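anyone seen this seq b4? input:
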Amino acid sequence: MTIYDVDIDALTGGTTDLDRYRGSVLLVVNVASRCGLTPQYDKLQPLYDTYRDRGLVVLGVPCDQFGNQEPGTATEIDEFCRANYGVTFPMTAKTEVNGADRHPLYGELIGGGPDIQWNFEKFVVAPDGTVAARFSPRVEPDDPELVATVEKLLPR
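predicted toks r here
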């Protein structure tokens, strides 16, 4: 099983079939709108804008498991992200990333590794669905190592 075998609800309704991203590089980030790291949206969107035509997909996964920092409804989350950060990359419905109710997406991303530490932890997924890298919440989306990892996986 890979992440491409997993479906997850989309923030604005319906289901996001992750298989549609097969062959793309995915940057999966658990996000929150009331977190000290929320300004990372300001760097996630430009990263997406820069590389989406080459095959990068940023996938925002709202999560309320860390300090109740994503308490809003789907509509509130969508409006906040668009109005404050101009977010155009795909977002999922609010999702559990740790614990007994962990979404299968995060089961695949984590594998046998440690639980998610906090909001804005990042996974770079290669076009074949394997996790190429995992970055801590404090690593900014424009960090040279993260960007180099993405660039290395994108088609030339």
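DSSP finds four helices and six strands in the chain. The longest strand covers residues 25-31. kinda curious what u guys think
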